[in-house]
Amino acid sequence: MDSVSPSTPVDFSDGPGTDLRDGLQEFRVRYPNRKRMVSGLPWNYRVCGEGPRALLMLPGGLGNDLAFGLVAGLVSRFRVVYPAYPVVQSLADVLYGIAAILTAENIASVSICGVSTGGMVAQCFMRRYPERVERLVLSNTGVPIAHWKHGRRAANAILSMAPWPLLRVPLAMSITKLLDAPAADRPFWRAYAKELFAKYVTKAEVLSNLRLQLEYQEDWHFSPEDLAGWPGKVFIVESDNDIFNNPTRREAMLDTYPLAPMYTIRGGGHMPAFTRTGEYLEMLRQFL
User: Fold this and answer.
1) Could you tell me if 214 and 142 are in contact, meaning their C-beta atoms sit under 8 angstroms apart?
2) Is 267 in contact with 275 (CB distance < 8 Å)?
3) What is the pLDDT of residues 63-95, one digit of tens each?
4) What would the pLDDT profile of 239-277 be if each residue is shown by its tens digit?
5) How far from chain centre, in Å, is Cα 59?
6) Which run of H or of E encompasses 237?
7) What domains does the chain contain, in order, with CATH numbers?
């Protein structure tokens, strides 16, 4: 999804904290989006830093600046590729587009950090292009669970019929709730989410993301044997209060990746990569 142009001023009417506001603005200016057409689809992506190793940052599907604080803490050691997903019809389009971007940037192999829906994309990419993946961080995400497709299909149908002006406010509120940021940072994230859905995210992009989630549950199936012969390592990150985490999803993750260490962030919500950045960075540095 397209994110704000780095030259566009940001109106945070809710009065965000100066550090977060300035960090976001600096990130947008320093790492503007590059543009590339892949199989007729327009991709935007940022390349951040000039570290000796490549790290692919896969977002949950809402632009590519939500992780500005995390990326800023990684650029001294990594060359971070941070794409935004265009409107697509299938996960195959996403996987091929990411591979094409890495090739265009002369990156043969990467470590991947996949957050939420980005973790879904990361797991599919690793299985489609295992030779291009060194290490895999799966953060606040899950593996396909077939019977969940029914609820996802019903929710998608309802959302597809709802007028976009009526969806924007509850979507922005849901992102703020999922972030579960510390109290002092909540005004910033409320303003960020409000602006995101008011100006930069379209209904077509939201529905595209929802289609990918449904396809993931319907058509993909993982097992521990998928990793046979793959020399890389998997690391799992969860939060103890992630509203999407439950015993079924957790058990399925552990069954699929029985050798993967798991790190639990206390009180991190669904997106600790963005709201518990210091702890998250230290964890990433140790694994990567």
Assistant:
1) no
2) no
3) 899 999 999 999 999 999 999 999 999 999 999
4) 999 989 889 999 999 999 999 999 999 988 899 988 889
5) 2
6) strand 233-239
7) 18-287 (3.40.50.1820)
